[in-house]
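Write out the bound-state structure for phenylalanine.
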Amino acid sequence: MLLTHQRVVVERGSRSGLPIVVAVHSTVLGQAIGGCRLTHYADWRDGLDDALRLSAAMTEKAALAGLPHGGGKTVIALPPGTVLDEPGRRAVLHDAGDVIARLGGTYATGPDVGTGPADMETIGERTPYVFCRPAATGGSGDSSPHTAAGVLAALRAVAAERFGSPDLAGRSFAVLGLGRVGSHVLRLLTEAGGHVITADVDESRRAVAEQHGATWTDPDSCLTAEVDVLVPAALGGLLTPATVPRLACSAIAGPANNQLAGVSRPANNQLAGVSGPAGNVPGTARLLHERGILWAPDVVVSAGGIVHAIAAELHRESAVQIAARIDGIGETLAGILRAARETGCTPAESASRLATFLLGERAVPAMAAC
Ligand code: PHE
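---
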């Protein structure tokens, strides 16, 4: 298999003793960006795999969002059952910060699954290459409401393509995952007049669902619900040759990274934080296509967070300018879905073609064109 990553650092943190992976996939368009994931893995090598896949997706995400940036990712792989106390968390975040500092600015991190603005502040004690520190200390703060705003723009584009109108009022949605981004998506959807059913592996999120008047269900029923749009907002790897035949939605668009997977994984591995195996990912996109389910590529849908952080912190744009940029995710997605329809490609292939074009000849595409 070809090594398509520019640089991958794997290190045992000197303070924490924990495995830290920083994968820099590409700096062809500029500094690589991508969040710091802090979660449990059965084996640290699963964390390495995750970092490799997620960083490659970040290259496409940044390119498709029109940003002069490449893709990277940090994964801190916690062994099963590890609980970090406050000093332990600081230690491992400082370890990660040191690795990022040594990359000399070719990569900058941000929040991701398991980390937030306060953690970015801690990483920021070791390196300046960190986005989304709290607003009080000069950062752009929590990126999740902005990611969610981008998801709404994407959902309008999907509704226009599939149902002939961008209006979300009266449409039905199944939001799978009520973490930081999923909760904001749920709120925005109910405000837009959507009917929402929702689920999370964490039962305590039920209160969030009820607060917004959504119907709570279990994750499998949410995945297979008969709704207009399924909105994956948890970990990736949920669309597989095993799950696609069971879906009853008309379209899928959500912020979870790396939603498509080529083969099924045991459920416990998914809970361990693996965001989707390699394998025949384009084949799964085709299965969705053949079932008549419109899938919006997650690399386009989930870009609101990085768009906001970069526009706010590097370009000091106004809130109005940034909102317009995030809204632009809808137009980008509409173009990709239209191109797919006109050429008979899957949306995954259409997005991948556009990313390859934007990245130019120098980059190895993550997915072959159709
Ligand atoms: N988790 C974010 C993503 O996947 C990563 C990020 C957000 C990086 C904001 C930088 C700034 O897009």
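---
The pocket of phenylalanine is lined by residues 33-35, 110-112, 131-132, 143, 257, 302, 305-306, 309 (CB under 6 Å).
The longest strand covers residues 70-78.
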